[in-house]
Amino acid sequence: MVKVKVFDMPEDAKRPAVEAPKTDNKAFKDIVESRRSVRFFSSDPIPQSVIDDCIDSALLAPNSSNLQCWEIHHVSDSEKKSKLAECCLGQPAASTAKELFVFVTRPDLWRRNNQLMLDEFDRRGDMPESAYQYFKVITKMAYTIGWFGMLAPIKWLFFNLRGLTQPTPRGPLGKWGMKVWGHKSTALASAHFMLAMRSHGFDTCPMEGFDNVRVKKLLGLPRGADVTMVISAGKRAEGGIYGDRFRFDKSLIVKTH
Ligand SMILES: Cc1cc2nc3c(=O)[nH]c(=O)nc-3n(C[C@H](O)[C@H](O)[C@H](O)COP(=O)(O)O)c2cc1C
To answer: What domains can be seen in the chain, in order of their start residue?
Structure first.
């Protein structure tokens, strides 16, 4: 039998229990089930208060180490918006959208955000030493990749040697590893955003059919940034949804161990 090491919560991290608020699964299901990718939008505008609220919901998404290495670019300037729709290959989901948002991952900003986190701990003044240690030691070991990812082979060797005898995180390694790391969290923020739009009665379409180089140039993004997806939003027009929803049989997807 495999022995599992049980970690005790560090004494200094113990806090009083917080009661979980009551929630409404029916309301959640209504939102999840009525969200569809909409390819044609009506001319109904989205109030700014709705946009602000959806952005707030996006920013509450879970994210790796809470480093929040993401940006949301709301492209509202009409000329820039048409250029962005062009970068999205002119697809109707972009060209008919009332609003366009670009979800961008910024793994290149992890160090800045790591410091912001430590500054916040100092401001709060009651953070346990174990939390400080996480952002002073662990994140630095996990996310430092060196100039042009030069540390990647060394990290690879270290992780894999250590992994021979004990469970060891194997990444992220190098520039691409950090991009994958960033995209995971930014995709979750994107999902929050789309569900929030639906909760307000609006629709969205996530898009990866775009020219990454041109979108980055249009938004003035640096090399270290990467576009996770472009999200169009508005109210669904008649015929704006391509057919009935279809998902594969669950038996192909869900595995029980
Ligand atoms: C990462 C990602 C990229 C997508 N890219 C496009 C796209 O470029 N154009 C488009 O019309 N739909 C795009 N979609 C929408 C999918 O086609 C759609 O989610 C899928 O067909 C399921 O339909 P549903 O969203 O209505 O449930 C994308 C979805 C995701 C998650």
So the answer is: 37-239 (3.40.109.10)
